[in-house]
Amino acid sequence: MTDPITLIDVADRLGVHYMTAYRYVRTGRLPAVKDSGQWRVFENDLAAFEARPAKAPPRKDLLPTLIEERLLAGDENGTYQLLENALASGADAEEVYLDLMSPAMVGVGRRWHEGDISIADEHVATSTALRVIARLGPRVSSRGRMKGTILLATISDDYHYLPTAMLRDLLRFRGFDVQDLGANTPPESIFDRASGLADLLAVGVSATSSGHDHVMRETLSKLAGLHVPIVVGGAAFSGLDHITSLGPCIPSNSARDALSIFETIHAEARSKAR
């Protein structure tokens, strides 16, 4: 029998992220042994795993609805299990957050706006989502050397914390060190925290509630003194032109767009450092 290989080698062979390979082991789908604190997989077990019958992919058209119902029921464990099953089936963090959890929360918001659910129902769903994200976060964080620091915050008078919490985890999944100041953060607090970060790459500022353009203007005016890119996005804005009209910044129209922008900022910073 050949010597067992590490999960890094397993991930490379399967063409998946390291954490996905780890989930295969943790959920019992892929047999492994622990040697000196490191999981290792025997060649015959990996070959059997590769030869297994392909499972049908998760029904992404149905999962967000199922997650939405579990969130509205305040069912943290049920929501977590649905997302955990998606991860165990090979979905990565971005798919789970952006293709499953995010559409579920959009559905909750739509039902509230249409009067199908109460504000209390919406609050239950949001608080449940935050607890689920808190459990998922450590599972999807990248290991190893960080790319640099990104500071995230939601502007004053906006109490929607979930968007930046999800973006925080996705940036960590991509290897960034992220500090998240959370909701209702005054411009001075963002500036003061950012000023103390020696390896700061960029600041991300979010707004979900409409009607706070004056707050974003004040925030961008204050942050202009940082001399780092300021990325702005959120459901409060009608489009990229709306965002850029509020002050100097890089506008983002979605979480995926924001991820791409931060990656570009990192690449440009590395290029300048050479």
Notes on the protein architecture:
- Helix 1 (7-14) packs across helix 2 and helix 9 packs parallel to helix 10 (213-223).
- This protein folds into three domains: 5-50, Arc Repressor Mutant, subunit A (Orthogonal Bundle); 63-140, Methionine synthase domain (Methyltransferase, Methionine Synthase (B12-binding Domains), Chain A, domain 1, Orthogonal Bundle); 149-273, Cobalamin-binding domain (Rossmann fold).
- It contains twelve helices and eight strands.
- It has 274 residues and is an alpha/beta fold.
- Helix content is 54%, strand content 12%.
Short structural description:
The protein has helices at residues 7-14, 18-26, 43-50, 63-72, 76-88, 93-113, 119-140, 162-173, 187-195, 213-223, 240-244, 255-273; strands at 5-6, 33-35, 38-41, 149-154, 177-180, 200-206, 230-233, 250-251. It has 274 residues and is an alpha/beta fold.
What secondary-structure arrangement, pairings included, does this model have?
Layout: E1 5-6, H1 7-14, H2 18-26, E2 33-35, E3 38-41, H3 43-50, H4 63-72, H5 76-88, H6 93-113, H7 119-140, E4 149-154, H8 162-173, E5 177-180, H9 187-195, E6 200-206, H10 213-223, E7 230-233, H11 240-244, E8 250-251, H12 255-273
Parallel strand pairs: 4-5, 4-6, 6-7, 7-8
Antiparallel strand pairs: 1-3, 2-3
Helix pairs in contact: 1-2, 4-5, 4-6, 4-7, 5-7, 6-7, 7-8, 8-12, 9-10
